[in-house]
Amino acid sequence: MQQDKAGQSAQQVDRGAETDNIQPLWHHYLQNTQSLIFVVDSNDQEHVYEAREKLMWMLAEDELRAAVLLNKQYLPNAMNTAEITDKLGLHSLCYRNWSIQATCATSGDGLYEGLDWLSNQLRNQK
């Protein structure tokens, strides 16, 4: 965990596909958490509804702000932001602040925009 000049700190927890095995422990990770970065494989249409279940389960824990980053947008069969917004059910989160951002981890495209949105949300809540 690191703290920046603005007093914000961050902790990264990468659970990937193993979240089912540790789901009972997630509330420990989410205690005192204000935001969540949820990365979705845009090219994996087979598991998008499983990703939706995990995202909704985590968001039910608390008043998190959620930045959903769509990785692998460069692939020809990648789902676009509108399609994933629909499949993840993000419009049902009308009581929460959330954002969705197309990204490419290998080039960095879209990453700063997603992180800037999240940083602004956290700064504005104070």
TrEMBL record:
Keyword Protease carried by entry: no
Gene3D superfamilies associated with the record: P-loop containing nucleotide triphosphate hydrolases (3.40.50.300)
InterPro entries named in the record: P-loop_NTPase, Small_GTPase_ARF, Small_GTPase_ARF/SAR
SMART domains: ARF
Any GO CC annotation of this UniProt entry: Golgi apparatus
One Pfam family it belongs to: Arf
Alphabetical GO biological process terms: protein transport; vesicle-mediated transport
Subcellular location: Golgi apparatus
UniProt similarity note: Belongs to the small GTPase superfamily. Arf family.
Name of the protein: ADP-ribosylation factor 1
Organism: Myotis brandtii (Brandt's bat)
